[in-house]
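Course assignment 3, question 2. Fill in each field.
Student: A.L.
Task: Predict the tertiary structure for the chain below.
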Amino acid sequence: MHLIIYDWQMKIGRLAEGSFVRNVVILMFGSGLSQLIPLLFSPVLSRLFTTSEFGVFTVFSTVAAFLGVLATFRYDLAIMLPKKKSDAFHLLALSVFIALIISLIILIITLLFARPIGRLLNTEELTPWLPFLALSILLLGISQSLNFWHNRNKSYKALSANMISQSTTTAVVSTANGFAKMDAGGLIVGSLTGQLVSSVLYIFRFLKNDKFRLKYISPRRIKYLAKKYIDYPKFSLPHRMVDMISITGIPLLLMMIFTESVVGLYGFMLRVLKAPIGVLAASLGQVFFQQLSEKVSKNQSVKNLFLKTIKNIAFITLPFFVLILLWGPDIFALIFSEQWREAGVYAQYLTPWLFLSSISSPVSQLPLTLGYVKANMIAGILNNSLLILTFLIASIFTETPQEIFLWVGIVMPIFYLCLIFWFYSLVKKYEKSRVLT
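Answer field:
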């Protein structure tokens, strides 16, 4: 392993400092290692935990993800934008402060109403773990904010190291808890521990390089910037919440219509497929967002950057999705045991949607950066409304989860193709306006 890392470091060192390729390689190296370990642990976890236990964990993680959207009111996205680093720091402080307040509110609610919430979610096994949602949201808010801060500063090695540390911690702790027979709680504790490690590492790095900035916090400046970037909580927050409704809504609808086992199969399938692809897309997306913001601020062309990002993610992910489309059930049964074969069937049906989603994900910040905040929100509402509507209509006319996923796998790819073409039309519009100015 040390020889592999050294070889990669030598190759990275030959690339031009600050180049797009170098930055992508650094993040891809980190994301690749960060996903290799949990993927290697997945065959073990799939034998230590049942499909129902994964179902409970899926409900916890999806609810945490939905509430996590509120963690910073989306002000963390604005950290990349100010020309002055001091303004970016005040947006960082604002984001962390909001995360503290939101997590405290959620802690109080879950302590007072844990049992009713557990019954509402149709999974009382989750009840004792509901107060931990507050911790997850706080850690998510801190790590997201500091992630954008380090991305702005082009600290790609730090971002890469954090991905590796979080995924490794999560995998090791979850596996240890599985051997300790902790049922679904073992997966929850593993996830929280990984989040904690990531947040602590980010905080240590910030204190090492930017501790002096804490002396210059200005409440008046924070208030000014909160008003200046009000479009993020005003438009981007509802947009993202609608996004999360589809992500969290499907597991909850599956729980109401079918069983925890079906939710577990669905959640595990997404865990296996979207984890490596998602981190790869996030790595390309972080670099794309940073360079896009920089080019737009300098009134430079972004067409080549956009097309290159789209082509790279499509070229890298296509072989993976082809394998799943052709042999998904056999692959899941062989690697994760026979009880997960059905998850491979779900994967086959959803592959076209997941493939096109992975292509659009790295460039999804383009409308926001170019100033199309409202249009981006409308696109997000259409996307997620269509997904939920397709799921609901299919559930009325079909009786099995396989048929529902088949309909989703047919309808949603059409929308994502339209979305990608819309992104490209925005790029062409920007290019024309740039030439005229």
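Instructor remarks: The mean pLDDT is 87. The radius of gyration is 21 Å.
Grade: pending
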